[in-house]
Batch of 2 targets.
Target 1
Amino acid sequence: MVGIDKINFYTPNTYIDLEELAKHRGVDPAKFTIGIGQSKMSVPPISQDTVSMAANAAYPLLTENDLNNIDLIVVGTETGVDESKSVASFIHDLLDIHPFAKSVDLKQACFGATAGLMMAVDFVRLHPDKKALVIGSDISRYGLNSSGEVTQGAGSVAMIVSSNPKIIEIEETSVSMTKSIFDFWRPNYSKTAIVDGKFSNEAYISFFSELWVEYSKRTNLSLEDFSAFCFHLPYTKMGKKALLPILEKEAPKNKDLLLENYQYSTNYSRDIGNIYTGSLYLSFMSLIEHASSSLTATDRIGFFSYGSGAVAEIFTGKLVDGFKDSLLSAEHEKLLTNRIDLSIEDYTTMFTKELSIDSDGNHLFNQDKTDNSIFFFKGTENHQRLYGKN
Ligand code: CAA
């Protein structure tokens, strides 16, 4: 049995309240909080990037045993910090993982971490005494005043994959699908994503419905075999738009259960925003940490991973006995309640702050005073990114 043994998330401790943002933009706040389904959005200071966030998510999980047995580090990201060097190689160094491990990034929009999880599960099936560290880490940016502004966010999810996992066993059958489309993308020359909003919603929904038909055909499983479905959540209404059509003919009892658990799975994303590759796993953590009294060992959870461009996958897992004892719910609550609510002015300043590297590749700065994270980005020296640890 192979699956997720430990799981944690990190998000920067600064956010913008979306009712305030709506008022400032002259939009009815209900559009953001009900129509889109988002309340708060994490905004990273310049001292938090894809690498430091990933290290902050993974660090609390690691014991001496993990550091000596993780032979594979995979980071799914679409907002890496270098065109060549992997985020995973920085992580290997920052976390002090033993030298004979393999470190690599995987890219396919928000699907990267799922590809990483599948690679890690296969790796551990082949090497049952070894472990893998899988991370999804991203800063989602569409730009100030853009149509996607309210669906931005920042954060990372880290997971340790092992034999005899303490949280969830990943089952063997999954179904993936690829279609080369332009619903959301970011050319190399652009710092913000380009999106065809309506088309991206339609693509997401049709990928889910086509995959569900194929998945149920291949496995003979029906919705009654599931206790919950977790979705990639660019915003919390998105997954529900995909889920509702397949629930139409479902018996009320099962429909109510799946909708109730869907709500639990959205709590964290509603207050953090879109974290791209980590989003599906943030939704899973939200579910198991908020619905834990109604979920029990052997319950089957469905996962829908969607990465624009586009690749998607439905896979499943079964919760294992004692999973509740391995959750970091109290730490997550503390992280979210101790955040700083930014004014519109501070949000704008933070959002637009950039490195100003001189001709020798230098720009070093102090950790932002709002940022109390363990790992932080210090700037560049001789074109090399440097990180600090508190
Ligand atoms: N009160 C309540 N609801 C309101 C309202 C009000 N006053 N005003 C509007 N609404 C509702 C609308 O009826 C609509 O609801 P439905 O979708 O259920 O019909 C909802 O609010 C959104 O309204 P609009 O469609 O008019 O919003 P918009 O034009 O501003 O665009 C968006 C919304 C397309 C999500 C846009 O924010 C966007 O492009 N976001 C980025 C792309 C994205 O997240 N796509 C998701 C799929 S792609 C993916 O998943 C990969 C990824 O991570 C990017």
Target 2
Amino acid sequence: MWQRLFMPPDASSVARDVDLLYVFLVGVSVFFSLLIAFLLIYFAVRYRRRTSDAVGVPIHGSTHLEIAWSVIPLLIALGAFFWGAKVFFRISRPPANAVEYYGVGKQWMWKFQHPDGTREINNLHVPVGQPIKMTLTSEDVIHDFYVPAFRVKMDVLPGRYTTAWFEATKTGAFHLFCAEYCGTEHARMGGWVIVLEPHEYEEWLAGARGETRLGSAEEIFERYACNSCHRDDTSARAPKLAGLFGRDVRLVDGGTAQADENYLLESIFDPNAKIVEGYKPIMPTFRGQMSQEEALALVRYIRGLEDSPQE
Ligand code: CUA
């Protein structure tokens, strides 16, 4: 009952351990706070000055009492220490049969990769009952991988790998947060961990394999560093792509070409075939590097780019 009131759902193998320790610590704090407050008031009333000329009685201390109030808190503190250490070791050591997944934080999204290479953004599908080891890193600033329902929280640092592990014990969707302030969109950097039955996970994986391994078009665009030249600013060394699709393009040899699918594909795989007026033939070919699927995804992406109104 208390759990439903005060805790997120417990959906991992360590959640109960963490909760019990937490409840113990809160319980000890509440117990001693109430005890001290009660004694404070009780003694103030019980031993108040009763007449204006009353004189206090000297006291000589009590060794037994002093030992008791030293040893009992010591035992409680050491108990909390060893209990906490036990839970800490459990959540920081992935079991030997854990399957490794990768997570990359980036302003402001999570990129995940499954053991078979399937990728997804912000959502992470996992099978229930399987220990999962997350290897985490960041592309820019410090983020923090946080799934309250699993009681899992780990800093995600640029230039370093950190690990966290969990074993989901319930199916369902559980919130995933970034728990380290990382800039403007920090609050929206999150998603869901979707826990599926193993066979459902296999089905999901089979369906997702094709498209998500490819990544989104924006990802492909970045992966091949297209944006280092095709940019909207004045330093762009290559034609602007927004609003390009469907237009007639003037070429250096005086002719024109229509920017349709074939033109864009040709420009990716054979960039020197048609050089746009005003630009130099500096674009490298992506033949042999970029798959057809990726190129097609890019063409669809360019097609959907709207021209920005300020130009
Ligand atoms: Cu990433 Cu906050």
